[in-house]
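Subject — a protein and its fold
Encoding — discrete vocabulary of local shapes:
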Amino acid sequence: MPLLAFEPENDIEHQILNARDEGLSGDALMRQIAEAELFIPSMNDVKADGSGFKPVLLEQNDLAFVAVFTAMSRQPKGMAPTMMRTGGKHFFLRLPPGYGVIFNPGYDAEILLPPHGAQALKRDLQGG
């Protein structure tokens, strides 16, 4: 299936293209994503306290990746009935071990953050 063209809709998406095209480091990009607003599809309704959240998981090479988008409009129709909006840092600090993240799946600028990378970013965000 061909990947969709990625036309940036906000500042973090411009940074994603900057990283891809001009060499912004992956670490620097992940720190910027942690400061951005993220949109995470959920298979269940999400309550104000975050309960009910059930992320869409995509598998690749026997690893589970949480699907995350950098703009509300990027989620494909039918992927999930609900979209949770949260800050990147909050998302990463709550991400359990063993899960990676796939940003903007289906787009030509998708980013894979493997489980070990997600945990390293989480430690960095925790200050340790």
